[in-house]
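EI: anyone free to look at a 478-residue chain?
SC: sure, send it
EI:
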Amino acid sequence: MLREDEIKQFIEDDRLSEKKRLASIGKKYYDGLHDIRNYRLFYYNADGNLVEDRSRSNIKISHPFFTEIVDQAVQYMLSSKNGYVKSDDPELQRQLDLYFNNNETFTSELYEMLTDCMVKGYSYMYMYKGADDRLTFQCADSMGVIEVRAKDTDDHCEHVIYWYVDRIAKGRKAIKRIQVWDDKQIYFYVQDGDGKIQKDYSVDYNPKPHVVYTQDGQKYGYGLGYIPFFRLDNCKEQVSSLHAIKGLIDDYDLMSCGLSNNLQDASEYLVVVKGYAGENLDELQQNIKVKKMIGVDGDENGGVDFKTVDIPYQARKAKMDEDEKNIYRFGFAFNSAQVGDGNITNIVIKSRYALLDMKCNKLEIKLKEFMRKIVKVVLQEINEKMNAHFTQADVYFDFTREVMTNAADNAQIELIQSQTRGQDLTNILNVASKLDNDTIVKNICQVLELNYEEIMAKVNADSAEGTLKAIEQIETEE
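SC: here you go
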């Protein structure tokens, strides 16, 4: 059991770690809080001192490419409408649907976990018993999860500290709820701001076993024997997907905001003054801005000339286009703004999804490994309730991703396939007199993708015509 001072030290050390620093940057960029928001302009004044220029335009606009790239990959990864946890056993499939495929809560939590994984580099999901006496899974914000090991090189995790901000009290002090999990129970603590960590007496049972249930009016509980936190890594280094494209996004922000600043300042002129009668240039600048007039010497050398400056639009636009192309290229994403030659066939669409498919194929390997861990504990519960003996070998995963297609292409493909099937059936009938009925039925079923045994049960004539009538009867019933 960890002491309160140890818990506080672990939280503080984790908050200052490089891992959490990089994760917080990913979170900021996903929320659209880019580095451009801290951009400042400076110049050297007449005394040679570097001071901030507060008179020039300094537009700060974030372009949330990273938000689009992450949401795009997550939604594409979970785009299958037929579920993704499968089994060839009908009874097991019904049970798995209750936990995963038909469970909107699990789908929502899995979506949040995948988003958290790509944004911060890793994510967690923890398990508990729901009100329906079934294992339930919930995403845990990885910024508040700390794995405590006896040694840094030890693979075994002795404790998991999970904290979150419950509310903001007066004086903008954050009230933290802290949970410390071991392999048997959960300890609850509370922290007011940066103060001392204390036991949370608002919880009914502290510590509380992993699972609490009621039997004959009495409360019972037991530990699972392991810490029910499951981690999904974005990559081996556990870094955000932002890592490869942050510099490109920053450059795009800089080019775009620079162009906006140029356009904003385009109404201003460079003022060339000859024979100025005033005492200093500050007075001149003030008179131009406020009074819209200045005084000059009356002799022939006096005068004011206003000159405009050309905006470097084409150079900035070309750089922005190149940055945008590279952001999607190195972010392995689908660029919906990509302009082609107008010939949008299925082949062209598929090629535009190539990078996103590569990214999701890599993520799918990690996701399947993660799903195996939680399916293992779900199978244990199913076996206990049903007195069954299902194993991991009875379960497989199908993350079939749906891609938009060209309707005209699809219709053309279906027409060609239908014509091909028709020609194959004609060929079979042309040689029907030389073949036995069983061979004819097998070949027809193969062409039309029908069940051979079901067809044979309805065949009442030893001829190809009788076979075709039986097939037409089955298709009508369907």
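EI: The first strand starts at residue 42 and ends at 44.
SC: 👍
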